[in-house]
Amino acid sequence: MPTSSRPIAAVAATLLTATALATVVSDVPAQAEPRARVVKSCTSSTGGLVVLDRDGVDYYLTGECKTLRITADDVTVDAWFVDTLEVLGDRNTVVGSILYENRVSGVGNTLRAGSMLDVLLDGRGHTVEVDGQLERARVRARSSHVAADRVLQVTVRGNRNRVESRRTTTARVHGNRNRLVHRRLASLRVDGRANVVKVSKGRTNVQVSGRRNEVPRNR
After folding, report:
1. Which of 18, 89, 130, 152 could form a disulfide with 134 if both were Cys (CB 3.0 to 4.6 A apart)?
2. Residues 54, 58, 62, 66: is their CA dihedral positive or negative?
3. What confidence category does residue 127 fall into, taking pLDDT thresholds of 50, 70 and 90?
């Protein structure tokens, strides 16, 4: 007696449907887990040291921080005042009204503040933005960007960095292939190679000993 093909066809159709549904489900992207948000008091820390070591966390710091050390990666930090900031991880963002003394290493970190006393950059790919005055910037990193309204002293020893300010007192460039853009710059010394320094207004005292640098003339 011949076997009917209808049950076989029905089973095949069911298998095809299940396979299609599985494919659709597997193609739906997984929902990212929400980031943890942690509120931390700087005034209650032992010895004045606050260490942030959890990756991927949004930190909100209360009070004045004496020493803040970031060893984690991919964190954001909202603080009012930090006396000494040490950023050792990668891809972190710190925002504060006053970030007084700052030491940044690692890769791709960002600092934003109303004012800063000092910033030292090592590593690469950092961004520093200051709305007001930055008294001293030391850029030993590469491929980093520093922008401030006013800078008293900037020293660039790394390569392929960019510095921008409305008014700068003293700039020293020892690295190579850096670009500095100022509205006013009082004093400039360049002994690196292939650097570009732009000044749009005022008089600049210029000393150059490196090769292939593009700098303003003494005027």
Report:
1. 130
2. positive
3. very high
Yes or no: say if 177 and 158 are a contact pair by the CB < 8 Å rule. Answer: no
Which amino acid is located at 52 in the chain?
Answer: L
Span 108-120, pLDDT tens digits: 999 999 999 999 9
What one-character-per-residue DSSP string does 96-108 give? EEEEEEEEE-SBS
CA distance 203 to 96: 34
DSSP letter for each residue of 126-139: -EEEEEEEEEEEEE
Amino acid making up residue 126: H
In the chain, where are the structural domains located?
105-208
pLDDT, tens digit, 9 for 90 and up, residues 166-207:
999 999 999 999 999 999 999 999 999 999 999 999 999 999
SS3 at position 191: coil
- Reading the block at residue 203, the tokens are 């008089």
Please tell me the distance from the alpha carbon of residue 52 to that of residue 37, in angstroms, as a whole number.
12
DSSP 52-68: E--TTEEEEEESEEEEE
